[in-house]
Amino acid sequence: MGFIACPHRRFRSKRKPGARASCKESNPLKRALSQKGQDFAELYVLTGNAAHAYRIVYARDPNAKAATCANGASKLMRQRKVQRHIQEIRTRHRKRNDVTIDAITDKLHAAYDMAFDQKNPASMIRAAIDIAKLHGLVVEKREIAFRDIDKMDDAELRGRSDELDALIAIGKKRLAELQSDKTIH
What we know:
single chain, mainly alpha, two-stranded antiparallel sheet, 2 strands, 63% helix, 4% strand
């Protein structure tokens, strides 16, 4: 019997040569993304907001700090299996809608040509900007400001709470639809 070192354990296990390793990397079930990870990925693709998806799926306290949710979401987004699952979802969505960058580019070029024929410079500019954005030549910058919940008055809190409840309901409904699509296909 030889000694086979497992990179995930601090000790060496005694095993026969050729025997399967029992470390977590060799077990495909251990490498699978958890249900919460899948829900996070689905909600992220749906909303485009990782911190919001993290708050809904993982946060035990619905009033968790925005920075905490952003940090947790950032850690999840760096995991390869989460990135892979997000890519799979996006691929599935593209196939379902049969949307390609080339098809969108062709439509935007047609819109540009139509605007040119109609002598409509505003529409021409809009189509040109959309083409540039599609191909990553133009990136929109947004500033995100977090307000302390302690500084909000009751009306603001109620309004924000209603907005979040509506978003959560939409997310849950969409997630249920996606999960029912998985079981049907």
